[in-house]
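Note to self: the last two entries modelled the partners one at a time, which told us nothing about the interface. This time every component goes in together.
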Amino acid sequence: MTIKTRMKLINIIFYSILIFGALSMAIPYIWMVITSIKPIDEIQSYPPSFGVHHPTMTPYKELFYLLPMSRYLLNSFFVAAIVTACNVFFCSLAGYAFAKHRFYGRDKLFLLLLGAIMIPYQVNLIPSFIIVKNLGWLNSFYALIIPNMAMAFGVFFCRQYIMSIPNDLIDAAKIDGCSEFSIYRLIILPLIKPALATLAIFTFLAQWNSFVWPLIVIHTNDMRTVPLALSVLNSQFGSNFAMMMAGATVVTLPVLIVFLSLQQYIIEGITMTRLKG
Amino acid sequence: MRKNTVCKKSFISEIAGQKYSYLFIAPTLILFFVFVFVPVIASFFLSFTKYNTFSAPVWVGLDNYYQIFFKDSRFWKALFNTTIYAVGVVPVGISISLLLALAIDRKIKFKNFYKSVFFMPVITSVVAISVIWKWLFAGEKYGLINYWLMKIGVNPVDWLMSPTWTLPAIMIMSIWAGLGYNMILLLAGLQTIPRTFYEAADIDGATSWHKFWHITLPLLRPTLLFVVIMSMINSFQLFEQVYIMTAGTGEGVGGVLDCALSLVAYLYERGFQRFEMGYASAIAYILFAIILVVTFINVKLTRPKFEY
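The predicted structure of the combined assembly is written out below.
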């Protein structure tokens, strides 16, 4: 075998791996959408088919009729938006202080924050639940929002980014009589916009998809977020696959649309931060 | 005496001069103390008590740990399942991810398209993924996977209803869902390897296999180590998939005969369904210890014998 044919063979092998892989990634999503618009008799027909003869919106109607889905979407969106805004503000503010200020106990406090990232969340799950319960926050937006308002990782991430801003810029502003908060608002914030965009996207995704914490603190019907609603649906109507797939589409589609429009940011963000969505 | 007061004064005035710094970190720090620092410590003490959240905790010493290690066969079942899951998902998942990363790293068309497609599961809610795969795995002939198995002449499997196949089904799904994340990180690692190394190897007449084995793999080691550790940690925290895929079987969180009970699923059951908060805290700390040990072993085992 000459080198050329060998290279060609390797190319063919790698291409087939990629195409096979991409298909196996896409098929579950395609199958989800197709099932969600199939009438019952087509779902139960054999063999399973990717074609839909009589597309129907009944599964979606059932879903929104059985559950207050629009309320759940609103809950999810509200929580994710507030948590994202708070994280962007608090983390950049603290990140700035940790990066550029000199104050007593700075390095020790930062190390403590850093240590928190290493601890699996299950360790503080139970006492956090007890605290939230004793504050009377169960089944409320407080429980969903407040504990997540400033994540240690965000502080670490912002600090790393702000460290690269030259001190001269800050010193010059100080000489011009800029207050500390103005320095943050007028100099730091504009310079770290790309980092904040990444942080915002990931916080939003993480909150939108968050499941364990809402599962633990939300027990009333109208406070559920979308993933929680899908899980409840799953344990009650798990065998109504058309409706389940409609629910899965409702959770997945908004995120996928956001992803496809921001994919460059997200993939770069992953490699930059090694953060998981 | 006087020196001391001067010292104190300057210390106080110093702190006062730093009030903006403290103001800036205050919101983060308060939240951190209330919802992370205090809970981590409280959890440690709770693990030595019996506590049902309704009456005050009762100190029982090491009894929870004794029960878990010597009396609780379900804990061992959960640990066994979680270990099987981690040992299966991590190597297979990372090998496939590496293969994909190598494929995408070549000069290929539609690079970004492939990246996006593989990345979709990473941004999809785990609950949604589990629900979708529950349908793919559906028993009888309606499920897509069973249909295709029958087409290639394999007997269909009642995946999520059979105690033997529930955990493997969850593992297959998790491998699928994790490919994109690992692939993106490995790809970034591959791109840091200088092209000149490969050119030098070409001049020496090295084959592709030699190049992979002697250049790519050793230089990828730091990234690979990171990916292995992250996947291991994630695998030991397995919960959502089990919770969703075993729901509706009429059994507890772990499915039929606890066939897919994971450590965190067990923690959830004891803590939040039976309200045995002390017992659950002990499980949480054992999980923490396991994760530390696994991470430590990984770092030790993969430490390079020589630097490049």
